[in-house]
Amino acid sequence: KQWYQRRVRANEETAKTFVDELSRCEREHLLAALQNEHSNGNGAGSITRKLLALEASYAGIPFIGFGFLDNTIMLCAGEYIDLKLGATLGLSTLAAAAMGNLISDVAGIGTAGTVEKSVKSFLGRSSVLTAVQRESAIAHRWVFLGRCIGICIGCILGMWPLFLLKNEEEEEVAQDQPV
Questions:
Q1: Which of 166, 162, 155 is closest to 71 using CA atoms?
Q2: DSSP sequence for 21-49
Q3: Does the reported pTM lie above 0.85?
Q4: CB neighbours of 139 closer than 8 A, spacing ≥ 6?
Q5: Strand, helix or coil at 135?
Q6: Which of 21, 127, 150, 171 could cross-link with 60 by S-S, CB 3.0 to 4.6 Å?
Q7: Close Cβ partners of 51 (under 8 Å, ≥ 6 residues apart)
């Protein structure tokens, strides 16, 4: 009760008003979080492997979106720059790829919030651990692992434009063959 008064300077009436404004689903999540805090003794306690894996999954899912968008935009922009501007400006393929990466990174900054909000609204939450548990070293390692796996999956999925791009050797072979 001291923490609540110190942080919010609220009374029972404002707490009731806060709860009344929550949806049914939000109330259920709040109740589960409060029960979890109470049962673990201030949020600390042992963290099961299942909870850690779930936390890693929640942390990794947005990174699938980031990796997908990053690679998709980078490949499309890099290919366009290579084909349209490369010869005109005398850019190498690698320079065109670097410019595509620049465009992709800037787009990533703009889409980061949207991806996170979409994932959070789809999942309904962004964490299964208490605040104290999230600060533990083991939780940080699992979250890092989840993000790494997520970005790898996203980057692999984001390579789909490569299936649409014709490579120069294929084009030369196609041009050499009679129609």
A1: 155
A2: TS-HHHHHHHHHHHHHHHHTTTT-S---H
A3: no
A4: 47, 52, 55, 129, 133
A5: coil
A6: 150
A7: 128, 129, 133
